[in-house]
Amino acid sequence: MSWLPLSFGAPMVLWGLIALPVIWWLLRLTPPKPQAEVFPPLKILARVLSREETPQQSPWWLTLLRLILAALVIAALADPVWNPREALPTKGSALALVIDNDWASAPDWDKRVATAERLITDAGKKGVPVIIAFTSEKPNAEIGPFDATAALDHLRAAKPRPIPTDRPAIYARVAQKLSGMPDASVAVLADGLAAKGDREAFDSLLSKNAANVVWAVPDRLDALVLADAQNEVDGFALTAIRAPGDVAPRQVTAGAFDEKGRRIADATLNFAAGATTATGTMKVPFELRNDFSSIALDGERQAGAVRVLDDSAKRRRVGLLSQIDADQAQPLLSPLFYIRRALSPFADLIDPSGADLAKSIPQLLERKPAMIVMADVGTIPPETRQKLIDWVDNGGTLVRFAGSRLAAAGNDDELLPVHLRTGERSLGGALSWTTPQPLSDFPRTGPFADLAPPKDVTVSRQVLAEPGPDIVERTWANLADGTPLVTGLKKGKGMLVLFHVTAEATWSSLPISGSFVEMLRRIVQLSRNQGAATVETGPSATALAPYRMIAADGALVPPPSDARPLLPSPGQPVTIENPPGLYGSQTGVFAHNLLNAKSTLAPLQRPQIGVPVTTVRYAFDQSRHLKGSLIAAAIVLMVLDTLAVFWIGGAMARFRRRPAAGATAAALLIALAALAVQPNPAKADDSKPGDEAAIEAIDKTRIAYVLTGVPKDDSISRAGIEGLNRFLIEKTALDPGPPAGVDIGKDELSFYPLIYWPIDPAAPMPSQAAIARIDAYMNQGGTVLFDTRDQFSSSIDDGSASPATGRLRDILGNLNVPPLEPVPPDHVLTKTFYILPEFPGRFTGSPLWVEASPDTSGSESRPVRAGDGVSPILITANDFAGAWAIDANGNPLLPTVPDDPMQRVYALRAGVNIMMYMLTGNYKSDQVHIPALLERLGQ
Questions:
Q1: What's the farthest any 2 CA atoms get from each other in the chain?
Q2: InterPro entries from the entry (predicted)?
Q3: What's the pLDDT score for residue 492?
Q4: How far apart are CA 794 and CA 802, in angstroms?
Q5: What end-to-end distance do the CA atoms of the chain give, in Å?
Q6: Scanning 226, 402, 636, 819, which has its CA 20 to 30 A from the CA of 57?
Q7: To 10 degrees, the CA torsion angle through 744, 746, 748, 752?
Q8: Quick one: CA dihedral 23, 24, 29, 33, positive or negative?
Q9: HSE of 764 in the Cβ direction (CA atoms, 13 Å)?
């Protein structure tokens, strides 16, 4: 009977089946209930005879029904299981369960959870504690040991993350936990992909008290990932990769999406048999390619199959301009030859119809280029000069190369980044004492800071910049003697760049070096493409707030609560605090992708160890326990037996004579049978749309800030509240949730005790409906902290208010604002947590305005001012959020004015006092009554 997929949890109970013959014999001796009949009395008396009566036997069908009922009960007590699974080895003192929950685990995450549930269930039956750890969580996450119930709760609360695994750190923690638990079982539920440091990680995990190992990996590695996407000359070139084990030919389609999620282009990528790389090109027009926001592989529900694009992936249109026509016989002497060769791989180059600047410059500007390169262009015609200046002010990047014409043309301060000396400098000539100069290290503040300076480049001639106080800030590259080689200046929304050498290899060997290509590529990336904002990278860059993240299933979602600002620079790792996605705002984003062009997928090799290893497959539990079904069938037979007894005893005849009673009994029996066979009664769902968001908002105390519509203000507000939250966690018992950006016209405001509102005159004026919602929020107990941030511009020359103060007056003019006063020395705000005489922020000197107390006189005997409730409004000009704001590394984003480290500390303490005031009200004010209460109690 081994072919029958049936097993029993308590097979010894089946010995009870041998009692069926005894039960049959007992049932045969049990007479049915006598049936009452009405006869004429005289006829009964006439038939009265003294004879012996024998009991009647029960009907055969009733005996069979009762035998089946007894067999079902015995079988149910034996705990039968259909399609039973083999018990997994979870013996020993503990079960250590380590699970990969990275991006590669997302497609079959449910199967992995089901496999882990079986392991935990088997361990729970044996009373074994469980250590459960996930390799894509924070290293300090709680891992146990837990009992089986708590371990299942942790398992079901986990989810796949769109980040790589961190096996070395997690395995080391599990090994530390196992150090005091001999002969433990270790279950490794891996994603099947190898990662850096795996060998050391497995050595540390399996060398500590491992009695046996359960090893689980996917049956096959069939995931496809998008490793690279480049905007080339003829289209968007894509590169997809797969693991080496997948050798069959395969075809996949990639789709390109714009910012609104609309699919605007397709490409097909083909994997040859045994190939691990497939390439394809989206051959669409240049303008359409610049609308790409993300590219994803169809059918791949994981983060590795999605690649987000920022402005650096958009191909620039670059105009080339020179006053010398190209010599076809001597192309190497053409001023634009090396520039064209350097830019053509990553830019679309456009040329005017001729060398006449009066016609060629307008022709280029009509094509709306992101950048214009001028090779030795001297004087620009007056009729086109202003157009070129306006183009730069509106976001264009003008790159100029020196030469004899530029050296003789004189200075043009509006189209050059620095003031030039007349003439040129010769190095290493026959009448010169100097020698050709090499390059020095690139300045840290420039865009070339992360590039290695070329060692074989020398400069023999150059144009010199006039020394000035700002020459160091404008220098992007230097010669060894300190003279500038490349200078740059931001002008309006655009940029001016000057190479102090020619574009051909007559003054220097820079144009024939590899560094020349990298320098031009970096400048192209800094240019503004069709008016889109760019993100500053390098040492001078600031951290960018999360904007749109890639979820583990590949969807673009809002940032999670644990995402932190990212410092944009090449090579930043993908972590749980910096998941893949877009960082920045609508005006400019930085793409932080999971994989790059050098990424590979290698299968994970099972470690060679000396303990027993059990290999299991990821699968759902196909076993079905039949105990409940057998019990339900036994109850049904019991009901049928009861009906049969009623029928044999004549009860049915009486029910026929009383139809109402019969119908009631029948309905009762049907209801009992329905309850017996219904395994899971339906439960009413009274949830409403928005309940989940409301629960998340009130799960922790959260400080809100108003979304002003000005990205810089909103990012500073969020970073400021994050800095205050960190200080609150370190110094108080309050553990606040992440900052909440609220749209005062749409979002629910009652969830937040405090709303920070930075006033910016450039932000749109709130609507009357939004102001009415703020008014209702304040009347219902909420507090709004208005920050004009204009302490050093609170009044202008004519004595009128600053623009920010004027905007605040316009807003308050539509609110029911109570009388205000600066925080008095004895106010509860000065003593809620820290003793503070003033409330500085990034600036100092502005008072903090609160609702005036009704009893401002006669308070000499009270250490704290009286008053019930909390002020619904606070006003300052000291820029609190600017002082609180921190980057991803916890460093301050903005300097205080004056630059005093203690001023930032006092600003954070002011934030703590404000939050304690919001949450405790006038608790400290009530403490003045304690002496009187103790005196009355006789203490």
A1: 162
A2: Aerotolerance_reg_N, Class_I_gatase-like, Double_TM_dom, DUF4159
A3: 86
A4: 5
A5: 85
A6: 636
A7: -30
A8: positive
A9: 11
Q: Are 79 and 625 in contact, with CB atoms under 8 Å apart? A: yes
Which residues touch 88 (CB under 8 Å, ≥6 apart)? 118, 119, 122, 187, 214, 614, 616
Place of tokens 């994997």: 271
The pLDDT of residue 69 is: 76
- The CA dihedral of 888, 890, 891, 892, to the nearest 10 degrees, is 90
Q: Where are the alpha helices (DSSP H) in 678-767?
A: 691-698, 711-731
Mark 687-722 as b/e (b = at least 16 C-beta within 10 Å): eeeeeeeeeebeeebbbbbbbbebbebbbbbbbbbb
The secondary structure element, H or E, covering residue 883 is helix 880-884
List the Cα angle 522/525/530 in 5-degree steps: 150
pLDDT confidence of residue 37: 56
Q: What is the pLDDT of residue 676?
A: 46
* Domains of the chain and CATH, by start: 6-84+627-676 (no CATH), 95-219+603-622 (3.40.50.410), 224-313 (2.60.40), 319-526 (3.40.50.880), 546-582 (no CATH), 692-928 (3.40.50.12140)
Amino acid symbol at 236:
F
Residues forming a β-bridge with 372: 319, 398
Instruction: Enumerate the β-bridge partners of residue 316.
Output: 347
CA 608 to chain centre: 37
Whether the CB-CB separation of 294 and 248 falls below 8 Å is answered with no
Strand, helix or coil for residue 757? strand
How would you label 52-84 residue by residue, b for 16+ Cβ within 10 Å and e otherwise?
Answer: eeeeeebeeebbebbeebbbbbbbbbbbbbeeb
Buried b (16+ CB within 10 A) or exposed e, 395-424: bbbbbbbbbbebbebeebeebbbbebeeeb
What is the number of other CB atoms lying within 10 angstroms of the CB of residue 589? Answer: 25
Please say whether the beta carbons of 88 and 535 come within 8 A. Answer: no
- Separation between Cα atoms, residue 175 and residue 209, nearest integer Å: 9
Residue 180 pLDDT: 76
Q: Give pLDDT, residue 500.
A: 92
DSSP 196: T
Separate counts of helices (H) and strands (E) for the chain: 25, 37
Contact 498, 417 (CB under 8 A): yes
pLDDT of residue 19: 63
Strand order in the sheet with 316-322: 347-350, 316-322, 371-375, 397-401, 494-499, 484-491, 475-478
How is residue 818 annotated by DSSP? Answer: P
Looking at residue 629, its pLDDT comes to: 78
| Rounded CA separation 352/362 (Å) | 9
Tokens of 247: 């050798």
Q: Which regions in the chain score pLDDT beneath 70?
A: 1-58, 82-91, 208-209, 233-234, 246, 325-333, 423-424, 426-434, 529-541, 621-623, 649-697, 793-800, 854-869, 922-939
Which string of DSSP letters, residue by residue, matches 437-466? EEB-PPPTTSTTTTSPPPSS-EESEEPPBP
Q: Could you tell me where the beta strands, DSSP code E, fall in 389-544? A: 397-401, 425-426, 437-438, 458-459, 461-462, 475-478, 484-491, 494-499
Q: Helix 167-178 crosses helix 198-206 at what angle (to 10 degrees)?
A: 10
Check residue 574 and report its DSSP letter. P
